[in-house]
Design brief:
With about 170 residues, the chain is an all-beta fold. It contains no helices and 15 strands. A hairpin with a 5-residue loop joins strand 11 and strand 12. It is elongated, with a radius of gyration of 24 Å.
Length: about 170
């Protein structure tokens, strides 16, 4: 979330503190690492700790020759949830291994599996509880028994909750 403000004039000794309130936890708390970026009379602060699926309000306090005061306060801002995403494996085509990257929108059960051209599961790469956010798995071109699979087109399928995504992968031996 980016918080931005512009002043008509700036007291040379002015300093700013940013405060954040989470909708589920009322009460503003100072952001310890808040150091706004300045361009002339405009200031911006990027809150990289805001979590997807939560709502926040911000206020900016100013300390200058006039004393301390609240400069501005934002309405509630909702951080959108991440989307389930399965990126194209890399490299593709591959031999002997490839990296599969994906994002989960929320913590929960997830499954990542490889299927052959007939729809039969070849390899279960990940299954079970997983944290929200980015993940990465290496597939070594082997099946669930550890045997190398033949050259061909394979499908990688990710499921998380009610969401699913798939990508084609090419193995060249």
């Amino acid at each position: 979330i980016e918080v931005a403000w512009t002043l008509a004039q700036l007291d040379p000794g002015a300093s700013f503190t940013l405060w954040r309130e989470e909708a589920s936890r009322p009460g503003f708390r100072a952001l310890a690492e808040a150091d706004p970026e300045q361009h002339d009379l405009s200031f911006t602060f990027l809150d990289t700790d805001a979590e997807p699926g939560r709502s926040y309000r911000y206020l900016v306090r100013c300390q200058d020759s006039l004393g301390e005061r609240i400069l501005c306060e934002t309405p509630a801002v909702a951080v959108p949830l991440r989307a389930l995403a399965l990126r194209q494996n890399s490299p593709n085509p591959f031999n002997p291994a490839t990296v599969i990257s994906y994002d989960l929108p929320a913590a929960g059960e997830a499954t990542l599996a490889v299927y052959d051209h007939r729809g039969r599961r070849v390899r279960l790469l990940a299954q079970g509880a997983a944290a929200a956010g980015p993940h990465e798995v290496v597939w070594d071109g082997r099946d669930d028994r550890g045997q190398p699979v033949s050259s061909g087109v394979y499908c990688c399928r990710l499921t998380g909750g009610l969401l699913a995504a798939s990508r084609k992968m090419v193995l060249l031996r």
